Structure formats: structure tokens, C-alpha cells
């Protein structure tokens, strides 16, 4: 036994966990759509009271390069008039970050990619949505912060429920 081995055993130090390294290599809009329905229908006046619905979905895929991943955050935002349920505008944004991720254990990689990575690029996607709604003739829409951990947990529950439903369903020929 070497002096180093003896020293490590004596102080009870646990083996060092690998250091996590995450960097955003690039980010871009894969798809952006804005539809100003209110202007097309010539809606105006004091009776316009927007009700905004935001849907967020996530996707992550391995790239060909080692330890690199595409993480897509997809937003679908619909604004309807509370008075008559007419659509005012619709925004769809598919915002992607290219990440280098090293040192994350394989069993923790999926939640890391779908929680931490979207958290890093969210402010940039929020700015795009704010700019496009402002440039589209509406007050800038500043999205509230998204709880990506809660979103991830909801998706796991949905998948578990879907699997339980498929297991209970009879097989038909």
C-alpha cells in the first residue's frame, strides 16, 4: 500500500464524483410562427381582454459528436378574448440549445437534459416571444418562469399512467 492509499483510507474520504461540465455550444430557433388573428379579423375596441394559455413541451436528442445533445423547448401560446373566446394571436416557438454535457451519470442524464438544459436557454426563448408579440402589434408577452422540474415530473406521471392503461387494455387480434 502506498502512502497516498493509506492517507485516503485514514480520513474516510469518499471517492471523488466526476465533475459535471455543461456548456451551451449554440442556440437557435428551429421554428417560429406568429399569427395576428385579431388584425386579420379587424378586431378592436375596449372589449378585448386577453386570456393567455401557454403549453410547453421538451425533447432531447443525442448528436453525432461525443457528449453533445440537442435540447428543444417548444412553446405554443394562444391568446383569446375573454369576452367572446375569439383568438387574438397564436405563437409557436421551437427553440433549441446545443449542449456539451460531461460527467453526468447515465441514469441521471435524461432528467438533466430535460430540466437543467431548458432552464439555461429559457431566458433567451422568453425574449424571442416578448419581441415577436411586441413586433406583432401587442404588448410584449413576458412569460413567467417555467418550473422544468414539475414539467418533467408531470411527463413521467403521464407516461406511467399511459403504460398502466396499455397494460390493462385487452389485446385484440
Helix-strand layout with pairing:
Layout: H1 3-11, E1 21-36, H2 37-40, E2 50-62, E3 68-81, E4 87-102, H3 106-135, H4 148-168
Antiparallel strand pairs: 1-4, 2-3, 3-4
Helix pairs in contact: 3-4
Keywords: Chaperone, Cytoplasm, Protein transport, Translocation, Transport
Protein name: Protein-export protein SecB
Family: Belongs to the SecB family.
Please name the defining characteristics of this protein.
37% helix; globular; alpha+beta; 4 helices; 173 residues; four-stranded antiparallel β-sheet; 4 strands
Write up this protein.
This is Protein-export protein SecB. It is found in: Cytoplasm. The protein is α+β, with helices and mostly antiparallel strands and 173 residues long. The protein has helices at 3-11, 37-40, 106-135, 148-168; strands at residues 21-36, 50-62, 68-81, 87-102. A hairpin with a 5-residue loop joins strand 3 (68-81) and strand 4. The N and C termini lie far apart (66 Å).
Give the C-alpha Rg.
23 Å
The proportion of strand residues reads 25-35%
Query: Could you report the average pLDDT, rounded to the nearest whole number?
Result: 87
Report the sheet with the most strands, covering strand number, pairing sense and barrel closure. Answer: 4 strands, antiparallel
Uncertain segments of ≥5 residues (pLDDT<50)?
1-8
Span of the ends, CA to CA: 66 Å
Which structural category do the helix and sheet elements fall into? alpha+beta
With helices defined by DSSP (H or I, 4 residues minimum), what is the helix count? 4
**For the largest beta sheet, what order do the strands appear in spatially?**
1-4-3-2
Shape: globular
Helix and strand string, N-terminal first?
Answer: HEHEEEHH
Assign a percent range to the helix content: 25-40%
- Number of DSSP E strands: 4
Organism: Roseinatronobacter domitianus
Family: Belongs to the SecB family.
Pfam family, one: SecB
Subcellular location: Cytoplasm
Amino acid at each position: 500500500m502506498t502512502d497516498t492509499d493509506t492517507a485516503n483510507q485514514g480520513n474516510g474520504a469518499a471517492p471523488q464524483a466526476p465533475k459535471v461540465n455543461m456548456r451551451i455550444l449554440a442556440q437557435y430557433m428551429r421554428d417560429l410562427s406568429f399569427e395576428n388573428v385579431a388584425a386579420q379579423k379587424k378586431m378592436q375596441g375596449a372589449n378585448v381582454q386577453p386570456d393567455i394559455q401557454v403549453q410547453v413541451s421538451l425533447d432531447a436528442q443525442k448528436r453525432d459528436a461525443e457528449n453533445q445533445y440537442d435540447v428543444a423547448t417548444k412553446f405554443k401560446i394562444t391568446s383569446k378574448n375573454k369576452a367572446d373566446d375569439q383568438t387574438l394571436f397564436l405563437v409557436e416557438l421551437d427553440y433549441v440549445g446545443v449542449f456539451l454535457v460531461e460527467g453526468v451519470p447515465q441514469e441521471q442524464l435524461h432528467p438533466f437534459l430535460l430540466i437543467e438544459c431548458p432552464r439555461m436557454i429559457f431566458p433567451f426563448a422568453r425574449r424571442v416571444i416578448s419581441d415577436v408579440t411586441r413586433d406583432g402589434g401587442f404588448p410584449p408577452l413576458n412569460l413567467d418562469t417555467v418550473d422544468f422540474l414539475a414539467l418533467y415530473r408531470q411527463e413521467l406521471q403521464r407516461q406511467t399512467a399511459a403504460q398502466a392503461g396499455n397494460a390493462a387494455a385487452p389485446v385484440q387480434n
